[in-house]
Amino acid sequence: MAELSKNDEPQDVTPNVSKVELADAHSEAESVAAVEAPVGRGEPILQVRNLKKHFPLTQGILFKRQIGAVKAVDGISFDLHQGETLGIVGESGCGKSTVAKLLMNLERATAGEVFYKGQDITKLSGRALTAVRRNIQMVFQDPYTSLNPRMTVGDIIGEPFDIHPEVAPKGDRRRRVRELLDVVGLNPEYINRYPHQFSGGQRQRIGIARGLALNPEIIICDEPVSALDVSVQAQVINLMEALQDEFNLSYIFIAHDLSIVRHISDRVGVMYLGRMAEIGTDEQIYEHPTHPYTQALLSAVPVPDPDAREHRERIILSGDVPSPANPPSGCRFRTRCWKAQDKCAEQEPLLAVPERFKGQDSPAAHESACHFAEEKDVVGAA
Amino acid sequence: MTTIEETTPVPSPRDAGADGGPLLDVRDLHVEFHTREGVVKAVNGVNYSVAAGETLAVLGESGSGKSVTAQAIMGILDMPPGKIPQGEIRFRGQDMLAMSAEERRKIRGSRIAMIFQDALSSLNPVLTVGYQLGEMFRVHQGMSKKDAKAKAIELMDRVKIPAAAARVNDYPHQFSGGMRQRIMIAMALALEPELIIADEPTTALDVTVQAQVMDLLAELQREFNMGLILITHDLGVVADVADKIAVMYAGRIVEQAPVHELYKRPAHPYTRGLLDSIPRLDQKGQELYAIKGLPPNLLRVPSGCAFNPRCPKAQDICTTEIPRLFPVTEQDGTPVTGRTSACHFWKETIHG
Ligand SMILES: Nc1ncnc2c1ncn2[C@@H]1O[C@H](COP(=O)(O)OP(=O)(O)OP(=O)(O)O)[C@@H](O)[C@H]1O
Ligand SMILES: Nc1ncnc2c1ncn2[C@@H]1O[C@H](COP(=O)(O)OP(=O)(O)OP(=O)(O)O)[C@@H](O)[C@H]1O
Ligand code: SF4
Ligand code: SF4
Ligand SMILES: [Mg+2]
Ligand SMILES: [Mg+2]
């Protein structure tokens, strides 16, 4: 288990025994978990097929008429393997959080399937759903609204135990909550405080502690470190990686910080307007992107070095992000793509290994939804 | 429409306030919260200033008091439990802490505006976005409902909300996190204030929108010669837009420097730790560097230098004596403009 070096902290922090505890609880409950599966090559634990979520657009106050739909997620497929981290990046509003909620079954899918160990969870409800949910947990994007302001931190982190009392018997809960606080680098003395007494970053760690409470197999992290300073971010990322190694956790890691996604991910999917534009290993996506949108995204990364930044080539995407209620025909990126041709308006490019790279032993041979996929020399900034 | 271009260097800081002094000058500000467990010393003597047209970036540990300082400037601290026992906040030379509630209200929103860290909870969930944007114009400028709505659409367009006219009647929850943030930005810009405090305005945004938003902020800043206080964790964004940086730890400014200087050679061990924590390409598969230890408990701030329990350079003096903000000089003693460090061993840190 990697050390978080918290142990060097002066007296007021108890020794860090919690990870061992977590391990025990986990192996008890999950004795079947495939521990030896190598990272990235395990069995698919989650298979997403043609997933869609359309939000109705209505008009009128008394008599609501549907006048269209926001196609927030519009046909997405991917696999998540055991012990793997799949990063998801993409423009604001492209549907990342909606995907996360669909995987958690917090939103009902309009169409498509999500198979968890072979079982389609979009069709589950009631107890069957509760049972599955224990194994799929989420850490939310917004540390402000996701925490109930009237509950103490102890109650917030302990809340999942109410639904799943088998994980922590009543008398043991406060001890477990203290351990979880310690695991995420918060002072266990804060157990009786309320969310508003914490800074944004501290609140995000409360959310992570709650996500870990039930020892899940999959954690869906929606911008889990966006609110944190880089050093705390590094601690949380180290913590997440250590927990992953220890428990063979699978992560879906949604973030807009491309360098942090690269650091933690085995594979990365790039979304645009409700669709997957490109997906591959971190090296394929960052070093050999073939989709113009990915290339633009990478070139826009701000570099934390004022000198290095001055002579970079930057692809500045102008043009508005099209409305997901009325996406462009053919390729959705065509209204902003500098390579667009007639074909792009007529035919929707499918997410597949492009014809020209097929069978090649090249890092460019990965799935990309572009008719004219090719490598372009963009600065590998992230 | 899409262009491919070389980035240009940031323009140098523009002229100071009309009277030559800074637009905003925070002096020795203290903020504490009286809670059941005791007094939380959230801000312990902050000093910083911003000139018109200038961008000050505030970096620092989460919980170090960046937002509380901003709230004190805006005059929106919850008091009680909050209390400002000491300090001055001068806006165009006038101490706002000595002003009446009425005077402060006039400044808030129209002359100093804030973009909040938490976009969703700052927007009213039961009112449409268009109504909330229009409110700025109805209340402050007495516009008609119709005109205010047109203005709202214009603002939404300006911050690049697609299909603004169609979505002006949508409610906040119907927008993505990034879109809500852009709506907050639109709201802050509505009345063309002299100073904008942006508390992590791009935290929820992806890099392309982030670049657009920062460009937009920079453009408006130039146009109106606005001062900008940018609170952020994103060292990349800072490098792109800031003129100068203040780094906070445990409610104090621990280092101040022009942007290029800070990255090249930090003069405070905490800043150095921050810079070392940025994930780099060659660290893939390895543990990231992280500053060891926990953030200080503000009920009991460590004696001496608040960073001492976590500092790799700490000596005995660090536990007994609070380091003042030392002016930073070159090795030969020539002063470096705009640089200060609150570390007893700043010399060793920057030159050693
Ligand atoms: N309840 C809802 N009703 C209507 N539209 C919605 C709803 N929730 C989300 N949307 C829309 O769906 C689209 C995708 O939203 P989502 O929150 O998934 O984006 P995101 O990729 O997470 O963006 P961000 O990076 O800004 O968080 C957006 O256009 C949003 O406005
Ligand atoms: N109402 C309150 N009661 C008690 N403590 C408070 C209150 N509001 C803020 N604090 C404390 O004041 C400190 C500073 O908080 P602040 O929100 O300014 O941090 P920050 O630097 O903005 O952090 P972040 O980067 O995480 O947003 C924190 O330790 C927080 O716990
Ligand atoms: S399919 Fe056409 S429009 Fe779409 S990304 Fe490729 S070149 Fe651009
Ligand atoms: S004063 Fe001492 S403890 Fe504080 S930063 Fe400097 S060396 Fe470290
Ligand atoms: Mg989101
Ligand atoms: Mg804050």
TrEMBL record, chain A:
GO terms for biological process: peptide transport; transmembrane transport. The keyword Membrane does not apply. Residues 46-298 form the ABC transporter domain. SMART domains: AAA. GO terms for molecular function: ATP binding; ATP hydrolysis activity. Keywords: ATP-binding, Nucleotide-binding, Transport. InterPro entries: AAA+_ATPase, ABC_transp_ATP-bind, ABC_transporter-like_ATP-bd, ABC_transporter-like_CS, Oligopep_ABC_C, P-loop_NTPase. Gene3D superfamilies: P-loop containing nucleotide triphosphate hydrolases. PANTHER family: D,D-DIPEPTIDE TRANSPORT ATP-BINDING PROTEIN DDPF-RELATED, TRANSPORT ATP-BINDING PROTEIN. This is Dipeptide ABC transporter ATP-binding protein.
UniProtKB/TrEMBL annotation, chain B:
One of its GO terms (biological process) is peptide transport. InterPro entries: AAA+_ATPase, ABC_Ni/Peptide_Import, ABC_transporter-like_ATP-bd, ABC_transporter-like_CS, Oligopep_ABC_C, P-loop_NTPase. One of its GO terms (cellular component) is plasma membrane. It is found in: Cell membrane. Residues 1-21 are annotated as: Disordered. CDD domains: ABC_NikE_OppD_transporters (cd03257). One of its GO terms (molecular function) is ATP binding. SUPFAM superfamilies: P-loop containing nucleoside triphosphate hydrolases. Keywords: ATP-binding, Cell membrane, Membrane, Nucleotide-binding, Transport. It is a peripheral membrane protein. Transmembrane segments: none annotated. SMART domains: AAA. Pfam families: ABC_tran (PF00005), oligo_HPY (PF08352). Residues 26-275 form the ABC transporter domain. Its main location: membrane. Belongs to the ABC transporter superfamily. This is Putative peptide ABC transporter ATP-binding protein. It comes from Streptomyces griseoaurantiacus M045.
